[in-house]
């Protein structure tokens, strides 16, 4: 049995569970993976076939699982450096290693109070509640045995996540050489249906909803950091990639490819794409940005550099450990500081019942709260 006294800093937690999206690791995995992702989501068949080709171009293997392995190794090293003894587990929503069996293993290992770190940094149904539904399902069979899970707060506006993005944006500007002076910063994230965007985050909500609000705050903070470092100002925008869904359904815009054409038209000299919506260079980054958007920019004659995602940047890994310690202190009834960048919202630990609404099935149970009864 784990010794709760081993690491007072992380008490009451006795294990850390990394929770991610998952991705195929060989060609035979691609279609079953896509079916897992899109089950009941109304994604057109043609879009699925199209997305399967994105994976084919990379040998049928997404880099995302390897990136989770690297993040786990980096977390282990950071915990060791701080002399914190905390077992690490890892489960995905859509592909092996799946969350369910991993939580079985964790419970069988004698762990009782688990802290979850999601590789998803923003509020929205897709990036928050859907993971919480999966966490609920995975832990529910063990609830009677007293196994519980808490998650850290959404962390995109944590100074550590922003610092990693500032470094990456600065490096990408350096790649542009003299053209950096003319560069526009285009912050990138996953498009989602506008109906999902406006119901993201807790109520009361702004007209745009929490998903867009948080991205704009992070984009502004990264831009300020880059401006401080380079001693000059930069214009920035937020653009979107990876739209799926039927054409009749409105999704967040502008699409990155349309936006690049507009910037070229407006006389912008160069672009840095900064994918703040993703924590690693997985398929949505290496295909949608590095393949498609790069090709669009080439056709337009618009010089482009792509900033790295947070990945295993020390500021990001350090921030995740800080967030775990902060969550642990809060669970012990202390009042830890909750650092956020200027203009950021202080993230909440427990999502309220109406946070990041499930529009298809509002009664589906999720971690953090009892579901509201349908009206
Ligand atoms: C907000 C958001 C994030 C960021 C937060 C987070 O990280 O969770 C994210 C991440 C990712 N999305 C990924 C892949 C896919 N997303 C899809 C579909 C969708 N994503 C959506 C949203 C998001 N997705 C939505 C609203 C849909 C429509 C279907 C639905 O309503 O659920 C589809 C289906 C085909 C298609 O329609 O494109 C695929 C294959 C991968 C893995 C990449 C790899 O393999 O390396 C990752 C990390
Ligand atoms: Fe939420």
Automatic annotation (TrEMBL):
Upper lineage: Bacteria, Bacillati, Actinomycetota, Actinomycetes, Propionibacteriales
CDD domains hit by this protein: Ferrochelatase_C (cd00419), Ferrochelatase_N (cd03411)
One Pfam family named in its UniProt record: Ferrochelatase
Residues at which Fe-coproporphyrin III binds: 62, 131
EC number: 4.99.1.9
Protein family membership: Belongs to the ferrochelatase family.
HAMAP family assigned to the protein according to its UniProt record, in alphabetical order: Ferrochelatase (MF_00323)
Main localization (coarse): cytoplasm
Source taxon at top rank: Bacteria
Keywords annotated in UniProt: Cytoplasm, Heme biosynthesis, Iron, Lyase, Metal-binding, Porphyrin biosynthesis
GO cellular component entries: cytoplasm
Annotated GO MF terms: ferrochelatase activity; metal ion binding
Known function: Involved in coproporphyrin-dependent heme b biosynthesis. Catalyzes the insertion of ferrous iron into coproporphyrin III to form Fe-coproporphyrin III.
Pathway: Porphyrin-containing compound metabolism; protoheme biosynthesis
Residues reported in the UniProt entry to bind Fe(2+): 190, 284
GO biological process, any: heme biosynthetic process
Compartments where found: Cytoplasm
Name assigned to this protein: Coproporphyrin III ferrochelatase
